[in-house]
Amino acid sequence: MALLHRLLKCRRNAAAAAASASFLVLVLVFSVLLAATRHEHGDSPAIAAPSLLGEEEEPGAGCEAALRPLPDHAARCRYLSSPGRRPPCAPAGYVDYLRLFYCGFGRAPWLGGAALALWLLVLFYLLGDTASHYFCASLEGLSEALRLPPSIAGVTLLSLGNGAPDVLSSVVAFAAGGAESDAGDVGLSSVLGGALFVSTVVAGVVAIVAAGRRGDAAGVTIERRGFVRDVCFLLVALCYLVAVLLTGTVTVWAAASFLSLYAAYVLLVWTSHCCAAAAEEDEDLGDGSKKPAAHNSDLAAPLLLDGDAPSPLPVSCKATTPPPKTFSQRALDALHSPLYLPRRLTIPDIAAHRWSKRYAVASALLAPLLLAAISCPSSPAVLLAAAVAGAVLAGAAARATASAAPPETRCGRLPWLAGGFLMSVLWSYMLARELVALLVAIGLVAGVKASLLGATVLAWGNSLGDLVADVALAVHGGAAGAQMAVSGCYAGPAFNTVVGLGLSLTLAAGARYPRPYAIPADASAYEAAGFLAAALAWALVVLPARGMRLDRVLGVGLLVVYLGFLGVRLGSIRAWG
C-alpha cells in the first residue's frame, strides 16, 4: 500500500504541475485578449440574431439556432455582446465562454480551442483535487467521529467521497438544464458514460492486468457474493432508470423513489454485514476459539484513495523535521499556489499531516464570507453578518486550537469536520458548475452535441482517477487489491447512477412541483444504457462461468463493448453533422 500511495502522489504532483502551468498560460493569454476585445468590439453596434422561423424564434430552438445563421465571428461577437441576447446563450457559469471565444479568439479559433482545452484540464484537476484532499478527508473524519461500521461507511460517506465529482456535475447540469439548455443532457450522459467507462474500460484493464501477473498460477479469484450483489443492483437501477426515461417526464415522487433504491442497497449491505459477523461469531464459539470477528472483504465499498493520506502503518509520535525542499519543489509550489491558496484559505482542514493553525484561523474567518458571497452576493446585510460571524469564529479558533496538532477530542473535531464538509461541497459545486458550462460552450463552438461531450470528455475526466487507482491496486495490491479494484468498478457506478441521477432528478422535479420534469434524454442516453447493460450481463455470465477468475476473456470482452459504444457515438456525429 505504501508503494500505491507513492504512485498516486506522483500522479497528483504531475497533474498539479500541468494544471498550474496551464493556469498561468491562460491568465496571460486571457489578459491580452480581453484588452484587445474591449478595444476592437467595445463600440460595435449590437445586432439581433436572425430567426429561422420568422420574427420570433421557437422557445426550444436553443443557442445553436441563434448563432448558426450569423455569418462570421464578428457578427456572433456583436450578438453575444448585446444586452438583449436570448437566455440560452447567456453564460451558465462565472465566465462567458462563448463571448470570450468569438470576441477574443475570433481571428484565431485554433488558439481559442487550445485555451478552452487547457482551462478544461485545470477545472478537471481542481474538481478532483478538491474531492480527494478536502471532501474525502472530511467524510473520513466524520465516519470515524460518528463510529460507523466499515461496511456502512463504505457505501455511504466513502462512496460519496469517491463519487463527488460525478454527483455534483450531474446535480449542477440538471439545475442549469431546461427547455432551452443542453446542460441537462450533459448531466445524464456524463453519469451513464462514466458508469459505462468504469464498468468496461477500468474493469477490463484490471482483469487483463490481474491475469498477466506473474506468480499467480491459479489466477486472481473474486468473491462471488459481493460481485453478484453489486452487479445485480446496478442492473436493477439501470432498468428503473430506463423505465423513467421512456416516460419522458418524471414527478418528484418517482425521482425520490429512484433515489430510495440506494437506501435499500445500504440496508442490504448492513444485513449482510450483520449476518456475516454473526456467522463468524458462531463459528468461533463452536471451535472454542476467541478470535475477534473480521469484516468480510466483499462488504467493502470502493476504496477511498488519497495520495497524501497517512500510511496505515504505525507511525512514531516523535516530531520529525521534514527534509528541506529542493529548488524544483519550491518552483512547483509557487506555480501551484494560485490554484491551492484560495481553497486552503476557505476550507477548514484538520488532517494531521496538513495541520496549520494559521490556515485554520484564516478558513474560519473567510469561509462565512465566501458562503455569503456565493449565496447572496447582492445583499450587504448578509455580507456584513458573514464578516462578523467569520471574525467571531476566527477568534474562537485562535483560542481553542494548538499550533502543534489539530483538535483530538470528538467534540473538538466535529465542528471542523462539518465546516470542511460544507465548504468542500461549496467549492466542488462551483467547479462542477463551471465545468458543465464550459462543456456546453465547447459543444456549441465545435458543433458537437453537448450530450456526446458529457458521455465522453466529462466521463473520462471524472473516471481517469479510478482507472489509475484501480490498476495500481491490481498490479501492486495482490489478490486483495484486485478484489477491491473490481468491487470499486461496480459499487462506484451504482452510487453515481442512483444517488447522482436520483438526487438530480428529485431536485429538478421538486423545483417544478406539482408539474412533472421533462427529462432531457436523447438517443445517446439509451445507447449508453444499452451498452452498460450488455457489459454488466457479460461480466455476470463470464466471470461465474470461469470460476470467478479474472482473465483476458472477461477483460477483452468488456473493452470490445466500450469500443462498440464509441463506434456508435462516432457514427452519430457524422449523421448529426
UniProtKB/TrEMBL annotation:
The chain crosses the membrane at residues 14-36, 108-127, 191-211, 231-256, 359-375, 381-402, 414-432, 438-460, 492-511, 523-541, 553-571. It holds the Pfam family Na_Ca_ex. GO terms for biological process: sodium ion transport. InterPro entries: CaCA_antiporter, NaCa_Exmemb, NCX_ion-bd_dom_sf. It is a multi-pass membrane protein. This is Sodium/calcium exchanger membrane region domain-containing protein. Residues 117-270, 417-569 form the Sodium/calcium exchanger membrane region domain. The keyword Membrane applies.
